[in-house]
Task: structure prediction
Amino acid sequence: MDAEGEMVTVQCAWCGTILREGGKTISHGICRDCAPELLERIRERLDSAGKPPAPDGPARDLKRASGD
Ligand SMILES: [Zn+2]
Result:
């Protein structure tokens, strides 16, 4: 059995640091140095994407116009 086939090299996708020496297969992960920055990026993305739409949209005006 090929032992190298079971060992996977884990490399930080951000800075390229080898997190775990392994075989030819390379898996990308995140190192301790980059993890806090990655979390910050995720938070920023969630903040910008999580903003609720404006409560007074065009749909509300249409509904009021047709019902009155
Ligand atoms: Zn890193």
Remarks:
- The first strand starts at residue 9 and ends at 12.
- The pocket of zinc ion is lined by residues 12, 14-15, 17, 31, 33-34 (CB under 6 Å).
- The chain has one domain: 3-50.
